[in-house]
Amino acid sequence: METKVEKRGNHIGKKKGGLVTMPFIFANEVCEKLAVVGFNANMISYLTTQLHMPLTKAANTLTNFGGTASLTPLLGAFLADAYAGRFWTLTLASIIYQIGMVTLTLSAVLPTLRPPPCKADQVCQEASSGQEAILYVSLLLGALGSGGIRPCVVAFGADQFDETDPNQTTKTWNYFNWYYFVMGASMLVAVTVLVYVQDNIGWGWGLGIPTIAMFLSIIAFIIGYPLYRNLDPVGSPFTRLLQVSVSAYKKKNMTMVSDPSLLYDNDELDASISLGGKLLHTKQMKFLDKAAIISEEDNTKSPNLWRLNTVHRVEELKSVIRMGPIWASGILLITAYAQQSTFSLQQAKTMNRHITESFQIPAGSMTVFTYITMLSTIAIYDRLLIPIARKFTGLDRGITFLHRMGIGFVISIFATLVAGFVEKKRKHTALAHGLVDHPTTTIPISVFWLLPQYSLHGMAEAFMSIGHLEFFYDQSPESMRSTASALFWLAISAGNYISTLLVTLVHKLSAGPDGSNWLPNKNLNKGKLEYFYWLLTLLQVLNLVYYVCCARMYTYKPIQIQEKETNSQPEKDGLELGNRV
């Protein structure tokens, strides 16, 4: 096994990777985020004012697009881990994304691809099915491109740092903080500069700028190829998981061995998928261990993997299953977060956004406070909180990613709770000034009343989302890290789809015979949006209880490091964390 590892190491190249690759990798992610956030931040305005969609339809279109763009990373991760590798998957996905952005920009520039402007005293003409089709094709191409970029850019960037090298001081948890910081900075530009351009200059330039930036990022990313530390694909992880499941089922009637050391093990077979260390046997889910029981029919030198699997491969499946409950707990936070670009934005449009007499904040730019808070929290956490926490816990990363996620959940609960009270204040002001029946008239209440909910969501994001991402990368089998990163985006996808379902159900079930509704299409002043926010708060409280139970029962993956003594410490820390949680 040592010989094969050394050969693989020479293929990678000892001098490749490291900090020098970050500008090329981050450029790709920055431009993808400029494009996605620059459109999403103001998309509700584009759909309602340019395509004349009803509010609930526009909100669901937005969350459906976000859900699809976060679901496709499963496909991109599969291609990267099984066949193409992360570099080529990133390159191809970026080109597809570029085509989608060009098409989307054309749909905003050409008058024939959107309905005519509204005329006074006339009902606005909604977009035709053909015009909507052009929009949806553009969004679908963008979603497919995101599917290759999102899971691979995270894992590909982390691959550039070899923690088995004692001379390398940069750790992957540092990288995740940097990744989210750079991503947040690009989002900040998107919700300020791009939204301003969209509102004041036009959607053609507002979408054209990130389209051009995306083209330049593809060129920069390809130029960096000689510097990258590339890991070869090692076959489909989904096939291995299925093989273990089938093997365990076929041997379900066999008696379990008394000693786990009798289970099948083959270092040569597992060499390509266990370079970072072999997974050790765990006592949970013993029924899967039957996949590693050697029967009289099995050939241990050249095994049929649909009948016999190694302990390492069995533990890969166990690791994925163990991550499932933690993965599911992150869905509702995304559901709550999604309201910033839908109903929170609609709140902002009704409020006084003037900073000076001649300048007012675009409603779509309100998320700037989310990103500023998120970036500030990440900086404070990385530079101040981690060194302090390290003195008490003795852990290099300060606190466990499970504790970090838990803090994010608590903050998110306060964000939606506060949002409900702010909505009551907004409606009370509208009532006091006789503006309930005038949805387009600005209510004399400062938009900065929304600042707490936006800022709290940013703080929650800094804790929960980074912890979630780090959890998937750290606890997934090494050969499945693109797939694990895709699980992070799958949770975002599920959160957006749950938001669509929740909005649809609330809109339908809260409809009264007099036309009242918690979430009205035309006039938010007559709705009960605060009830919707408090429903989200209650659901998140229940979710927090669920998460705490899952975190307390979670078992960290045990790894046997065979290459270097220095590698044992991080895993030792991980096992200690598991005991504390």
TrEMBL record:
It is a multi-pass membrane protein. SUPFAM superfamilies: MFS general substrate transporter. InterPro entries: MFS_trans_sf (IPR036259), POT_fam (IPR000109). This is Uncharacterized protein. GO terms for cellular component: membrane. The chain crosses the membrane at residues 62-83, 95-113, 178-197, 204-228, 359-381, 401-422, 486-511, 531-549. Belongs to the major facilitator superfamily. Proton-dependent oligopeptide transporter (POT/PTR) (TC 2.A.17) family. Keywords: Membrane, Transmembrane, Transmembrane helix. It comes from Rhamnella rubrinervis. It is found in: Membrane. Its main location: membrane. The keyword Transmembrane helix applies.
